[in-house]
Amino acid sequence: MPTETMRAIRLHEHGGPEVLRYDEVPIPEPGPGEVLVRVHAIGINPPDWYLRDGMSNLPPETRPKFELPVIPGTDLSGVVEAVAADVDGFSVGDEIFGLLRFPSFDGQTYAEYVAAPASDLALKPAGIDHVHAAGAPMSGLTAWQFLIEVGHDHPSPFQLAKHRPVPLDANMTVLINGAAGGVGHIALQLAKWKGARVIAVASGGHESFLRELGADEFIDYTTSRPEELVHGVDLVLDAVGGPDSRRFLRTLERGGALFPVFFGEFDEEEAAELGVTVSGAQVRSSGAQLAELGRLLDAGTVRVEIDSTFSLADARAAHERAAQGHLRGKIVLTVAEREHHAGAQVSG
Fold it and tell me: Which single residue of 84, 133, 176, 281 has CA 20 to 30 Å from 260?
């Protein structure tokens, strides 16, 4: 009997959004410790386009190994379709969400069905839909592991020391650069949940959105230089990162910390002279932490903003939207019910 097939987006070569192909492939079989998920929505993240373009932005020694063709994607929300014999805690029909197998690039979530490690999954918060749940895992866990609790002992490939979050409370001022993006807007809400005062940096069109999320102060980086306006903050979370991150060192109080989400380039002597710490973590999959974040999502303490949605078949347009930048929250791919049925019937 022929294998049942599904639709998935695959890369057969590296390049721009045009290399994303809508293919028909076999439905995966869940292995030990895994469940088969019928996917409803897929969150898009920067690693998806790093994989697409061949990781050209990462230092060669940190690039994960993978072979083409490959199905990209790490974030999903969906329904458990089948459960391996050794899996406890999930049953067929459960609604779940997760960040799969990160930091490897083997999540394979741009598909109608995914074999997912049960340890990477949590029950989807009942109070939010699949689209919002799919937008939460990587961005939410990045914000959580940088600000609240690392939750693992794996070192970052970009630093020797273990990352230690700074305990946040009402006496702390946190500056978040890139506050309207996926990681930034969740980090802002987590910092407010802990009682901190938050300065949000983003482009001007996002001001009312960020104030609604709780920002105490807003800086439009297109008209002002935050490093000239702000001094004496306790923590900078730079969700943009990269070479420009070092300019935020001078906004910090002595004893403060700068957490670049995307590795930056820093002068260690400058940081030492200013008496500040630069530290980052590499986000890793964690069903347990996602369950904690899920409680905040369910309560409405944290919400996921959706920039835009596209169908799975239209992944190219979703990546084109990502390349335009100035995102407000997350881009999400949706999988239509009819696509599932069409896929499942091909075996006839």
Answer: 133
